[in-house]
Amino acid sequence: MSLTNDSPEVAAAAAKTASFTLASLPASARNEALEAIHAALTASKDEILAANARDLELARKAAADGKLSQALVSRLDLGKKGKWEDMLQGILDVRDLEDPVGKVSLRTKLDDNLNLERVSCPIGVLLIIFEARPEVIANIASLAIKSGNAAILKGGKESTESFIAISQVISSALSTTQVPNSAIQLVTTRDVILQLLSQDRSIDLVIPRGSNELVRYIKENTKIPVLGHADGLCSIYLTASADKDKAAVAIVDSKTSYPAACNSVETLLVQDKALSTIFPGVAAALALKGVTLRLDAASKAALSSTTLPDGTVLDATPEDYDTEHLSLTLAVKTVSSVEEAILHINTHGSHHTDSIFTSDGAEAEHFMNQVDSAGVYWNASTRLADGMRYGFGTEVGISTNKIHSRGPVGLDGLTIYKYKIRGDYQPTAQYGEGEGKRPWKHERLAF
Amino acid sequence: MSLTNDSPEVAAAAAKTASFTLASLPASARNEALEAIHAALTASKDEILAANARDLELARKAAADGKLSQALVSRLDLGKKGKWEDMLQGILDVRDLEDPVGKVSLRTKLDDNLNLERVSCPIGVLLIIFEARPEVIANIASLAIKSGNAAILKGGKESTESFIAISQVISSALSTTQVPNSAIQLVTTRDVILQLLSQDRSIDLVIPRGSNELVRYIKENTKIPVLGHADGLCSIYLTASADKDKAAVAIVDSKTSYPAACNSVETLLVQDKALSTIFPGVAAALALKGVTLRLDAASKAALSSTTLPDGTVLDATPEDYDTEHLSLTLAVKTVSSVEEAILHINTHGSHHTDSIFTSDGAEAEHFMNQVDSAGVYWNASTRLADGMRYGFGTEVGISTNKIHSRGPVGLDGLTIYKYKIRGDYQPTAQYGEGEGKRPWKHERLAF
């Protein structure tokens, strides 16, 4: 890793050159680099935490002056219980994942001594833009090296001292390995994000790690593909055939287990027939957890005989169904059918994760086929949308894109493939149908 | 299919709505739609060819006035021997391909009664912009319907009469099927390309079918992902260990079997040691086929005692190594090593298809790993880069993108996946490590 003061253009070109070397390193060399980083960070804990303390001091002053939120200060703190250990363990966890590079997904005999092979390979150069959490730099450097991608990292300015300390440690650790120095670069110069976003000749993929605003800004300002999602407006459609008690548990989980997460439910669509049967119990369970309900007229009327804490019941505005509240607020809307629910979700949702609660399997399959989202669930909490929970071992991000990777993205989202052909100089003009032409064999081979 | 005069925004929104219905049709319904199109076009041959004749008449006048190339006039002609039959057969060929929708590529048991599944599904709405060939409309409509994608088609104005005739036939054919009318729309209003390219809320992927200029223009003017390639600057690296006679045959094939194709070789890199041994025979074979060589000093000197037709040998300029000649012109450059060849290709190439000719397997593997192209070949003609030749049965295009699809793209390049979870309302908060927590099972299931 190098701490670069080069221009974004020079940094990106250097990363591109380094990416070719990194892409051809064997898994053992990439894993050794992760071990070297782990060892070096372990040995440098004191100096990194000292640098982090300087960031924290500035941030606390800014917070005291009302210029920074307390939440951000808290996210900055590398010394918080377990954070340092988690960061280090994360590096070893990434090392232990299956190598995503060099996987063969197709092998075809085109003719004798003429074989086609599709092999996974790194994408090239990643640009990773993140905000305050200093531990992200170790996580991201690990993911990039493991997947054979070069990376340019640009972190939030509040963590500058921590980033510099960590990157110097990583840099000297990598110098003992086969990973080229320019493969992982930290850009610390200010106000370079727009310039980085214009390096579409050298940078192949942008990965934002931060707020919706950051992601939206990046998507608006680059031609480079962006892996991620700006919004997480997830819905649950509660039908009259759902299990009353279990539905309440799952909706409470979807809303309250981490309200600020992108996979928390924001809109509850209630079938009209469920208003008087299942919905009051669900509302009561949510209210118990402090959730405020923003209701349409029908769902509000359905709660008229349910005793709820003051302030639980509010009238919904049209904007509520397009808002990611990220808090203990849930918009509720009455619909008459699964078709209406699907239409609402495809129109107002963010194509992230949506669930139907029903005992009717055919209705559930119809919902899952028609809802245009990365995750479509049947009787399941929207909070399942997560790379660790899916069993991917890590998560690069959650994508609402319609191409390449969708939903929680694991390491293989950082790869693409190339086609290799090994032949014996056969001229293509000899092949085809008809007299004197040689037919293609096109035999699928095992891999 | 509808022939729309709606605004691009309205057309795109209607296509999006139709895409949800189309996406959930079974393969049988999509195949029946293809058969209906085939039957209707067969029955309407005369009226379509009459419309095509009107386009041709205008085009011939324009060509006589020097406003249109003769090559374009020739491409317009649907009555040319075999073209009509090929167009119709192409529809049936697409019908017979394996269904790319609904393929399961991952199945994991997260817990008892909680199963994750990754299933392929259509991308959504395609925008296909093409130039003069009227038969493309049938091909593209078939590919879209087969893959369950809605499509907006915008063709070149020279084929307007043909497009309208074909689309009216397809439209009435589809009205007897389950494919919604707005799923395939032909836009005939003029000058709407830029407006279509700005519909990134409704359109998910742009597929240009036409000249480099068209592709480059589209890539420069949209935030929607574009599947395709602007340039095809393919190279062959000829080493001293290559088979002398076979190499000449394969290089002649790469250059001359279809010089205007994107997969034809444009630059020959010659190892210095091969200049006096293999290269003269290669040059003579190319010259026999009418190829003009643009040579650097060393390669030119190597031909001093080879008798070649007048005009075969020219001096290369630096621009020649960045030019896709698309004609019987080949740039030749001398390099001293595979490293130099790799660097040249990664710097000057278009990441399309590049080949090394060598008897050294280790050198070939190194080349294939380090060259950053969709196709990397060993002793094989660059002209192999083609969906039919790869055995995909069809070709949507050839992509030089670094994400989603790379190289010749078959039907599966028009799909993405969604994650389905079928559960029993389990709250996620109960899972994790530590006391009182329930561990994830994460068992891979067969599919």
Automatic annotation (TrEMBL), chains A, B:
Its EC number is 1.2.1.41. CDD domains: ALDH_F18-19_ProA-GPR (cd07079). InterPro entries: Ald_DH/histidinol_DH, Ald_DH_C, Ald_DH_N, Aldehyde_DH_dom, G-glutamylP_reductase_CS, Glu-5-SA_DH, GPR_dom. Gene3D superfamilies: Aldehyde Dehydrogenase, Chain A, domain 1, Aldehyde Dehydrogenase, Chain A, domain 2. One of its GO terms (biological process) is L-proline biosynthetic process. The keyword NADP applies. GO terms for molecular function: glutamate-5-semialdehyde dehydrogenase activity; NADP binding. It catalyses: L-glutamate 5-semialdehyde + phosphate + NADP(+) = L-glutamyl 5-phosphate + NADPH + H(+). Keywords: Amino-acid biosynthesis, NADP, Oxidoreductase, Proline biosynthesis. Catalyzes the NADPH dependent reduction of L-gamma-glutamyl 5-phosphate into L-glutamate 5-semialdehyde and phosphate. The product spontaneously undergoes cyclization to form 1-pyrroline-5-carboxylate. PANTHER family: DELTA-1-PYRROLINE-5-CARBOXYLATE SYNTHASE, GLUTAMATE SEMIALDEHYDE DEHYDROGENASE. This is glutamate-5-semialdehyde dehydrogenase.
